[in-house]
Each structure stands twice: as structure tokens, then as C-alpha cells.
Write a structure and sequence with these properties.
Radius of gyration: 22 Å
Structural class: mainly alpha
Oligomer: single chain
Order of helices and strands: HHHHHHHHHHHHHH
Helix content: over 70%
Number of strands: 0
């Protein structure tokens, strides 16, 4: 069938405008997605110019990792106390004090277990992180959720085996390297399962697009860069937005300030704990000057693992009371 040229041009223009409107609608429902796509592109560009250096993390890269995790990644967990109060889980100043004590003791227990059994602790951290991070996606079926989370964590070990083995070795010694090897072997099968299950998200085209970009990032950019892009621009911002969407516009600056304050306190506590465990009697300035990449990785990830457990417990308890967090 033939159409006049003007009709074809008009149809193309209408299709383009319609596609643009749909894209805008999708980004409006998930505004951090635009930032994610920009940061993902920058990550690929930067990684291509420093591939060898990025594959084996330097002290400067680990310092950047810690700074971004503290300033961008932790704030969404900085509202745990507020969520506990708002849901009625915590009432009054006395219960709030007990909440903080329980939160801190749980984090200390997790960190202590890691120092005692680093291999088991790292394995556990990967498992509960997979479950926790996969909650960012609309499909909540348990098998798919778990597969998705594990696959996203395992893919870097497939394309960057030496870098992941180095990171896991710093975190858990030989047991960590063995775990990296296991993830390397499992990654292609997990990827097949994840791609085969994408039909579950067929009603969420933006989620499919984001997963496609994440898969590409996991295979292209170094593991720490991939972790930063995902944790900071997808998981943390999305979690924070879900909370802020449930309050008035006037309340949001106060909650953001509260989240930032708690994140700063958490980062300071992790740094203080690291000083007492690793310092060997040196003063803080000397210890910081002597920190190497392996010690920095341990400090960041053990601290993150320790804070993630009480954070997940709070989310679970609050969700049981019907609140979204």
C-alpha cells in the first residue's frame, strides 16, 4: 500500500512524539532513572580510559568508594528511626533510645561475626544483599527476585574474575577467592535464567531497560564502578524516593537533613570502629595515612554489611505494619 509523502512524514512525526511522551511518562514515574542512565554512560566512558587501573582498585578509588557510599548510599537507611516512629514500632524517647541501642548492637554483632568467620559472613552478605537489592524491581515473586539479585552480583565475577577475586580476597582471604571462582562459574547460567525470566516485567518496560543497562554495566565496567552506579543511583535514590513520596513537600527538607545526619554518624562510627580494630596503637592520622586498598575495602564493605542487617530488619518490621519503605 502506498501513502502520499506528507502522510508518511506526519505518521512518523506522530509516532516519534508518542514514543517521546511514553518515555517522559516512564521517567516521571522513576525520576532517578534518568540520572542512572547518565551516570551509567559516564561510568563506561571513564572505565574505558582507565581499564587496567580500575580493574585492580587503588587506595584513591577505595577512598572515592567510601565517600560516595557514605554520602549517597547510606542516607536512605538514615530514616530507619523515623520510619520506626512513624509506623508505631517505636513510641516515646525511651523506646527510641532502645531502638538506637539495638540497631548499634546488631551492627556490632554482624561486624564481629565477619572478623570471626569472614568466608561465611561474605557469603551471607551477598545472599541478603541480593534479596534486598532485588526489591528495587516491581516483580516480587520469591524465586525471580532471588535469581535477579544473585545474577546482578555474580555477573562482574564472570567478566572480571581477577578483580573480583582480589576484592573478595581482601574481604575474606582464600575463602573469598573461592567464592569468587564459584560465582564466575555460575554467572552465565544465572544470566540465562535472568534473561529468560524478563517476561515477568513485561508490564514495566522501564525496569526491563534498566536491567538491560545493568547487565551491560556488570560486563563492561570494573566491579567497584558497577557497584557504585547501582547502589548509589538506583537502590539508594529509589528507596529514598519511595519514602519521600509518602510525606508532604514541606517535610522533605527536614527528612533529607535527618537522613544525611544519620548517614554521617554511621560513617563516623564505622571509621571509629575500624580505627580501634586496625590501628595497632597508632593515632588516627597515622592510621589513615597507612591505610591501603585492601584495608579500605574491608572497612567499607564490613561496615556496609553491618549496617545492612539492622536496616533490613527495620524495613521488614515496618512493612508488617503496612508501610512502604
Amino acid at each position: 500500500m502506498c501513502f502520499p509523502p506528507n502522510t508518511l512524514s506526519g505518521a512518523r512525526a506522530m509516532n516519534t512524539a508518542s514514543a517521546y511522551r511514553k518515555l517522559r511518562e516512564l521517567l516521571d514515574t522513576s525520576p532517578e532513572s534518568g540520572l542512572f542512565l547518565v551516570v551509567a554512560g559516564l561510568a563506561v566512558a571513564v572505565s574505558s580510559t582507565m581499564k587496567q587501573q580500575a580493574a585492580q582498585p587503588s587506595a584513591a578509588m577505595v577512598l572515592l568508594l567510601g565517600a560516595l557510599v557514605a554520602s549517597v548510599g547510606l542516607p536512605h537507611g538514615g530514616l530507619d528511626a523515623w520510619l520506626a516512629q512513624r509506623s508505631g514500632l517505636v513510641r516515646g524517647a525511651q523506646q527510641l533510645l532502645l531502638f538506637y541501642i539495638a540497631y548499634l548492637l546488631t551492627a556490632v554483632a554482624v561486624a564481629g561475626f565477619w572478623l570471626w568467620q569472614p568466608g561465611l559472613a561474605l557469603s551471607g552478605f551477598l545472599l541478603y544483599s541480593a534479596w534486598h537489592f532485588a526489591g528495587d524491581w516491581p516483580e516480587r515473586a520469591v524465586p525471580w527476585r532471588f535469581l535477579l539479585g544473585i545474577a546482578l552480583l555474580a555477573l562482574p565475577a564472570w567478566m572480571w574474575p581477577d578483580a573480583v577475586a582480589s576484592i573478595f580476597g581482601a574481604l575474606a582471604g582464600q575463602e573469598g577467592r573461592q567464592l569468587a571462582s564459584l560465582m564466575n562459574a555460575a554467572a552465565p547460567w544465572l544470566l540465562l535464567g535472568m534473561v529468560g525470566g524478563l517476561w515477568r516485567l513485561r508490564r514495566h518496560p522501564l525496569a526491563i531497560a534498566e536491567l538491560g543497562v545493568l547487565i551491560a554495566l556488570a560486563l563492561i565496567v570494573p566491579p567497584l564502578v558497577f557497584f557504585l552506579v547501582y547502589y548509589c543511583t538506583v537502590h539508594s535514590l529509589r528507596s529514598l524516593r519511595r519514602i519521600l513520596n509518602g510525606v508532604s513537600t514541606a517535610q522533605r527538607p527536614r527528612l533529607l537533613a535527618l537522613a544525611g545526619l544519620h548517614a554521617a554518624i554511621a560513617a563516623l562510627l564505622v571509621l571509629t570502629a575500624g580505627f580501634f580494630v586496625m590501628a595497632d596503637g597508632n593515632n588516627l592520622q597515622v592510621w589513615l595515612a597507612q591505610l591501603n586498598a585492601s584495608q579500605g575495602l574491608s572497612l567499607v564493605f564490613i561496615g556496609l554489611a553491618a549496617l545492612t542487617v539492622p536496616h533490613m530488619l527495620v524495613e521488614w518490621l515496618v512493612a508488617r505494619r503496612g508501610m512502604v519503605c
